[in-house]
Specification:
Pfam families: HIT. The protein is α+β, with helices and mostly antiparallel strands. The chain has three helices and five strands, in the order αβββαββα. Helix content is about 30%, strand content about 20%.
C-alpha cells in the first residue's frame, strides 16, 4: 500500500510543493513547527533513510540544503532546522524549517493541520518558491 507521501507525489492528495525533480520532492508540512516547515522526500518509497541508495541520499541532502537556505532567507531566520524522525510516515523524509532557537526543535509544539491558516501556508510556500525560483508544482521557472 502506498504511503501518504507517495499519494502526494502522484497527485492523489494535495500539497504545497516548493521543489520537484526526478528523485526528490519538497512540500510544506501540514503540521508545521513554524510556517515554512518543508518536508524533503525521495520519490522512491523507502522507509528508512539508511536504505536509500547513495545517489538518492546525495540528492535528498542537496535539495534539503537548498531548501534550508531558502527558508532561512524567506523567513529571516538565523538557522534552518534539519530533522530526520521517521516514525510518523513509513517513507523517508527530512524536516526543514526556519528556526532561531533550539526550543523550536520540538514536535509536541507542531501546529495541527486544522490550526494552520491556509492563507499563511500559501504565503509560506510562495516565499520559498520565490527564493528557489520554482513554480507551484515545484519545477524550475
Amino acid at each position: 500500500m502506498s504511503s501518504v507521501f507517495t499519494k502526494i507525489i502522484n497527485g492523489e492528495l494535495p500539497a504545497r510543493f516548493v521543489y520537484r525533480d526526478d528523485l526528490v520532492v519538497a512540500f510544506l508540512s501540514i503540521e508545521p513547527l513554524r510556517y515554512g516547515h518543508v518536508l524533503v522526500v525521495p520519490v522512491e518509497e523507502t522507509d528508512r533513510w539508511t536504505d536509500l541508495s547513495p545517489t538518492v541520499w546525495g540528492q535528498l541532502n542537496e535539495v534539503a540544503q537548498n531548501v534550508g537556505r531558502a527558508v532561512k532567507e524567506a523567513f529571516d531566520a538565523s538557522r534552518a532546522g534539519y530533522i530526520i524522525a521517521g516514525f510518523d510516515v513509513p517513507h523517508t523524509h527530512i524536516h526543514i524549517f526556519p528556526t532561531d532557537r533550539m526550543s523550536e526543535y520540538n514536535f509536541s509544539l507542531a501546529m495541527a493541520a486544522d490550526a494552520t491558516d491556509p492563507a499563511k501556508m500559501d504565503d509560506a510556500a510562495e516565499k520559498i518558491r520565490a527564493v528557489l525560483e520554482t513554480d507551484a508544482d515545484g519545477h524550475p521557472r
